[in-house]
Amino acid sequence: MIRGNEYKQLDWQLILCYLILMLIGWVSIFSAVYDEEHGHILDITQRYGMQFIWIVTSVVIAFIVLFVIDPKIYSTLAWLIYGGSLLLLLAVIFLGIEVNGSNSWFEFGPVRFQPAEISKIATTMALASLMSGYNFRFKSIEGYAKIALIILIPMAIIVMQKETGSALIYGAFILMLYREGLSGWYISLGIMAILLFLITLSSSPFVAVIVLTSIMVIARGVLSRRAIVHLLGLAALLPLMILSPRMGDIPAISQKIDLPDVFWLSTIIVPLLLLHIISAIKSKFKLYQNIALSFVLAVILIFSVEFFFERILKDHQRARIENLLGINVDLKGAGYNVHQSKIAIGSGGFWGKGFLQGTQTKFNFVPEQSTDFIFCTVGEEWGFVGSSFLIFLYLFMIIRIYNLAEKQKDTFNRVYGYSLASIMFLHFFINIGMTIGIMPVIGIPLPFVSYGGSSLWSFTLFLFIFIRLDLDRRK
Amino acid sequence: MAFDLGKKNILILGVIVIALVFLVQLFYLQILDEEYKVTAENNAYRYDVRYPARGLIMDRNKKILAGNETAYDIMITPYEVKPFDTLDLCNIFDLDYLEVRGKLKEYRKNRRRIGFQSMPFVKQATSIQYTIFLEKAYKFPGFSAVSRTIRNYPYNSGANLLGYITEADTSFLRKNPEYRRGDYIGKTGIEQSYEEVLKGKKGHNIFLRDVHNQVKSSFADGKYDLEAVPGMSIISTIDAELQQYGELLMRNKIGSLVAIEPSTGEILTLVSSPGIDVTKLATINKYYSELVNDPLKPLFNRAVMSPYPPGSVFKLVNALVGLEEGVLDSDTRYSCSGGYHVGRGVACHPHPSPTDLTRSIMMSCNTYYCHVFRNIIDNPKYSSVTEGFIRWKEMVESFGFGKKLGTDFPAEQGGTLPSTGTYDKIHGKDKWKSLSIISLAIGQGEIGTTPLHLANFAATVANRGYYIVPHVVRGSPDTLINTEYREKNYTKVSTANFEKIIEGMFLAVNSPPGSGATASRVAVKGLDICGKTGTAQNPHGKDHSVFICFAPRDNPKIAIVAYIENAGFGATWAAPIASLLTEMYLTRKIERKDMEAFILQGDLIGNTTVR
């Protein structure tokens, strides 16, 4: 409970950003679904009218979180909340309604609610509670296992609801874990895996292996402090690798064997790899072993890409990725959304077309324009200036939350803060990334801006709990 | 880690990098890449073009030479086409079924590139076809009609002069990006020179459409719709009736007839024969290949494009130069015994001898001008033949010969004048003398003048020493377009010297028969025609028949050249034609019915060996 003048110490910068983002969202939704018959921005038969209600109720929620609820209950009740959220997640599969092919929504009269949104907060609290525990040891099998379980259970249920996009968001926790002690190798490995996956798909395993080898040689060079030697070696190696399939052209050889390019490549790489492994074992330098291990894992990944892509991904997911990579662009099908979205944003120009002047979003060229593709409206009507402003706003908020989180004395608060910033960041990254065509289409909302009550409510809750926790540090 | 930033800062760095990637991509999409903006316009708006009425072309008395009438273009918006009864559509517009099928297939193949654009499907449908189409329009989704104005020509004359309008072709569109496919442009003649004035401004109605491709509403209640601005009308300098009469006279003859009002430089009549038939002009595309392949080249405007030897007409120029250079006077006499017998020599026709200046013009003595020309070139004032020639050329050029006059008529050619280089090449440097180039004395040899040059020369003599650049357009109803056509261009010959040759020109026409005058048969009492005949040798057959004249002698109202290819003596065909035109212009009627009948019956096309 806040008493006296303590409210002055709240982080008003974050609160201001929050209010501005909600306002941008409201105005954009108004623009996106505007039509002359329902001209009033408070007309609740329309989405902008409803969004106004969500905004007002969100402010009420924020107020309650700040001034009414004792922040101590979050760590106390964390497990209860987590358990409750799991129950809701399960219940929705059986009791919820189906929207766009996924069973993730509860419907109460006019109000729809997605438990997956709340589950992010609950999972954060559970993790924070676990990791702030007195006798918790992160770097133990037990510690890893507990963390993995807490994250994977809700993820699995959400995948069962066919909400793959929302499930992906749980990947953001890896950023928090990195701060709490997870080795940077895992993140690097993750980023590299995605990179290699994309390269393999868009060109070939041959190219991917060359890129991978180059990365590894550079990494080793940086670590060994003999960078120049390694770079020179790489310069010599690259043409060799690229030209290796030409060996098949040598008449004496080509008559006997006919192999794919990658096998020719391996004749160059395998000896190098063995050399590296021997020196790694000799020097007992752990990072060298990591390099070798990463390399092997990555090669396995490269050769399983096709299997994963063709067998595990669903048709629409595959189409979205193919579209992003320009492999198989279908502007009427999978590529339609992104193409229209890019047209809308691109047509905004530098200053934008002005409020309500957007033609692309207003006339339904862009699907989901008030929810997942709300950024189009901003891009079209407010141009490069407006889009940049929005991006800076997020950038500012995320950085600020990371900085505040770092300052927390209490582990629970710190873990909570890092999780919040990371989840916001991933939403921001995926959502805006897909509207401007650098990420595949993954249907998740833009925090505070996209239309929708449950998203706005839960992000409000998520953010203001942190603001309230942060206040305790300042007192 | 080897370089320790602190894990928090590494995370923040990652966030910043992503934000920067976003900004770069936004910069690319929103500022660098134009494609998305264009696509957006195609996406959401539907522009229905409103075509402006083209400006009228009127004659000097505001009679309409080129007017407008309505035709209909049937437009197709491939995106909106749904399966329809192809045969029915073919019947309405008299189209070939297979051709239509092929066209539709083509559109389907390119539909993404075409987007929501409309393009012409049937051009210039008649109003009857249009009415039938309207009744059945509901059966043909994706087709619509746009009204266009096409030309009509109340006067049956002036086709080559007016030029025609046609759909802009690809090479034109590439050079003039402000035009769109399907726009009409002026080609040749006044239509081309005054395209900017005549074309007007296109307008458009804007409609918004939604993703289902339905027109949702008139955009912003038509606030941004643009009315078409009709093109400005043009008043030409042409006299419609005189033009029509000139074409009548030139029928079945190959050549040109040009009349200029000397005091203003305004072109009254400009006939190139054979020309385009006006009835084919409005729908010229149908006849285009026929016209192009016609061996008589009706599309070729001889009056401004064809360089001819001027023949004896050019003697006047040499006389003027001689007078100005002081090597000739009114009293200078030379005798003629059937030719000039120096070197290869130049023959002359029988006539009383010796002659003074006036009578040399009247009787067109070749020998006289050989003397004059040699005196000009070999003038002891100048150190060499070359210098004398350069001086001569300077004087000749001041009449506008050998260069484009700068008329507003397109495709004007400059003709040719020889230079010292020309002769150095033929004879070797400094190896030539006045005798080597003696043909120039009588307007033959290495000289080419267009009929327009000669008409301009006639006007210059009429003005006693200056010309105003001949032009075909006076202005629009409210403004003068051509203020630049006011300036007097003086020749290097003084006014007094002009009077001396005009006497000869007057006598050439107005001497009694039997006096040896070359054109006495075309004299008209009271009109005081002053003229000079020419009979130009050429390698294409019979001599060209040439006549220049102006009338009346004092305050001339009209200056004319008639240049008839392969028609023989100047006095036989060119002089009567020019004099009839003069008579028509000055008196508005023809008294000399027998001469008129003779000319109208003359068919000289067979004289020309088609080349």
Topology:
The complex is a heterodimer of chains A (475) and B (611).
Chain A: H1 12-33, H2 47-67, H3 72-95, E1 97-99, E2 102-108, E3 111-113, H4 115-131, H5 141-160, H6 164-168, H7 173-179, H8 184-202, H9 205-224, H10 227-243, H11 251-254, H12 261-283, H13 286-312, H14 315-325, H15 336-346, H16 374-407, H17 411-435, H18 453-474
Antiparallel strand pairs in A: 1-2, 2-3
Chain B: H1 7-32, H2 35-44, E1 45-50, E2 57-58, E3 64-76, H3 86-93, H4 97-109, H5 111-114, E4 119-125, H6 127-136, E5 143-152, H7 159-162, E6 164-167, H8 170-175, E7 184-187, H9 189-193, H10 195-198, E8 203-209, E9 215-218, E10 234-236, H11 240-249, E11 255-261, E12 266-273, H12 284-293, H13 302-305, H14 315-325, E13 339-340, E14 346-347, H15 357-363, H16 366-377, H17 385-397, H18 420-427, H19 451-462, E15 466-467, E16 473-475, E17 489-490, H20 495-510, E18 530-536, E19 544-551, E20 558-564, H21 574-587, H22 593-601
Parallel strand pairs in B: 2-10
Antiparallel strand pairs in B: 1-8, 2-3, 3-4, 3-5, 6-7, 8-9, 10-16, 11-12, 11-20, 13-14, 15-17, 18-19, 19-20
Helix pairs in contact in B: 11-21, 14-16, 15-20
Label this structure with key terms.
heterodimer; A: 475 residues; mainly alpha; 2 domains; three-stranded antiparallel sheet; 3 strands; B: 611 residues; alpha+beta; Penicillin-binding protein 2a (Domain 2); Beta-lactamase; five-stranded antiparallel sheet; 22 helices; elongated
Beta-strand portion of chain B reads: 15-25%
User: How would you describe the shape of chain B?
Assistant: elongated
Q: What would you call the shape of chain A?
A: globular
Unreliable spans of chain B: none
Series of secondary-structure elements of chain A, N-terminal to C-terminal: HHHEEEHHHHHHHHHHHHHHH
Assembly of the depicted chains: heterodimer
Overall mean pLDDT of chain A stands at 84
Describe the largest sheet of chain A: 3 strands, antiparallel
* Biggest contact: A-B, 46 and 37 residues
